[in-house]
UniProtKB/TrEMBL annotation:
Keywords: Cell membrane, Chaperone, Membrane, Protein transport, Transmembrane, Transmembrane helix, Transport. Residues 95-367 form the Membrane insertase YidC N-terminal domain. This is Membrane protein insertase YidC. It comes from Granulicella pectinivorans. It comes from the Bacteria. One of its GO terms (molecular function) is membrane insertase activity. Residues 47-68 have a biased composition (Low complexity). One of its GO terms (biological process) is protein insertion into membrane. The keyword Kinase does not apply. InterPro entries: Membr_insert_YidC, Membr_insert_YidC_N, YidC/ALB3/OXA1/COX18, YidC/Oxa/ALB_C, YidC_ALB_C, YidC_periplasmic_sf. It is found in: Cell inner membrane; Cell membrane. The chain crosses the membrane at residues 20-37, 380-400, 451-475, 525-551. PANTHER family: CYTOCHROME C OXIDASE ASSEMBLY PROTEIN COX18, MITOCHONDRIAL, OXA1. Its main location: membrane.
Amino acid sequence: MAEFKNPNQPGAPQGNNQSLIVMMLVLVSVFFFAQYWKTKHNPPLANPNATQSQAASAPASAPADSAPQAVSLSGAPAAAAVPAVVATAETTTIVENELYRITFSNKGAQVTSWILKAYKDNNGKPLDIVHSDAARQFGYPLSLYTYDAGLTKNLNGAMFVASATGQVASPTSVTFTYANGEYKATKTFSFDETYLLHADVEVTRNGTPLRTLVAWPGGFGDMSKPQDYATTQIDTSTNGKEEHIAFKKVSGGDTLNGPFDWAGVSDPYFGAIFLPDNAQSATIATLHNQIKVDKAVLKSDQGKGTVDVPLLGVAAGDLSGRTQTKIYVGPKAANILKNIHAANPAVTLEPLLDFGFFGIIGKLLFYSLQFVHAHIVANWGWSIVIVTFAINAIILPLRIKTMQSGLKMQRIQPQMDAIKAKYKNLKVTDPKRNEMNAEIMELQKREGVNMFGGCIPTLIQLPLLFAFLGMLPKVVELRQAHWFWLNDLSAADPYHILPILMIVSQFLVQFYTPSPGVDPQQQKMMAFMMPAFSGYITWTYASGLALYWAVGNLIGIAQQAVMNRTALGRETRELAAKRARRKAGQPAVIQGKTNRR
């Protein structure tokens, strides 16, 4: 195979690979530390109440033809204590405002449809946030959860009497009541102009309150990919400190007692979160089930048959038995979440939007995108392009510093080669090689050469890249955001145009950027490995990341091309060519041409 050479670094010296090694070590260290951080900050859910945690998850509802019966926790029939209140037929109540359209059934007084008007599903229809398949199997939103499976089944199949039927405009309140002589259940829901509603739920047995929770049994209506299920999590906030627990660490049926500022379940874009009126006595039950989904439904799998995917849910209540809580069901949009307050006004839902280990940088990047989108161009794709230009303009002085550092390295390279020649016969394990390293370091210090100078731009860009990796798939604003041929900047490029551009531009970045002191073989390896690595990441990842990365590469190539034509760039190439000519039989490559002695 013909030898590959960087036109800015002909005949680079062997052995001085500190910059490359440091860069790779930093990359590996960041990945390992991120995994450690994730493990430490996402502990498995504990079970503080062993008796309650053993309670099985209750089924969704009774069959349509089953009449609710009085069920005693002890198994014995209970004496009638309250007048019966039972509806004779199933009815619906629709509550609507500018943001949602919620359909209740009086059977179980639970939600059968929850349309979020500002969002579309994958077929372009208004998004129903209720996961219909999951609801039929495990329960509908705002159903009841008790620690008696039979009672839960009967209550969620009971025919409640609604205070209002048909279509009702918000703000309003709707009360559902059911009684069968022994048990009485009352569910009152109050609505305003926001995504919030308030629930006041109580179940009594012969006048004594029973510990009853209000449930969002699992899933959201926008789930169409395996990762949609795998990225669902349980979110909690205790005394202002939030936790995000991945599905692998959630045990179904576990009960956790408060205090809870808020608790619920969310996927990357939407959440169903309970904000108890009394945080100190709040309690939640975690629900973890498996659901079979047709492979044809999952956009990334067009095979036949079904696949099991995880399904998380949460039920929230109060130790007193009576549940009083606000409920937020809507997008995980920063400008909305920061205005949703818990019982403690200082606590908001803003931490629900979690960008991972580099979350602080991710939020800064997102707010920058948001500012550009609001004040410069109302398109998220162009916002990414503009922010990328701004980032590269900021780090341009560092690129120049890097080139200056490379030039200094070239100037002292003959002296470094002479030092290495003194110790060339020593084995790698010989302690005297430490003397060689000490001499080289002393020379670099004396000449003002920073051995890490070539890594600075990369070390700065890596956190930005990881921040984009963590931020882009969780920003609901980029969900279904268009840019030229891209219909969704949070999804992969369907035609793989950007990943291919990414591979080509990454190769050119490696090819045109001077790398003083790097082993030519390793330089050649990196010239192919880095494009392959970046192409692999962006092939199936959010196209917004590929757009940021590819545009950044194109800007970097243009900047480097200009710098290569400055006095600094010319001197760097001349020194490199001069060193190459010293090596008999080796060609020197300048500006794409081969010069021989």
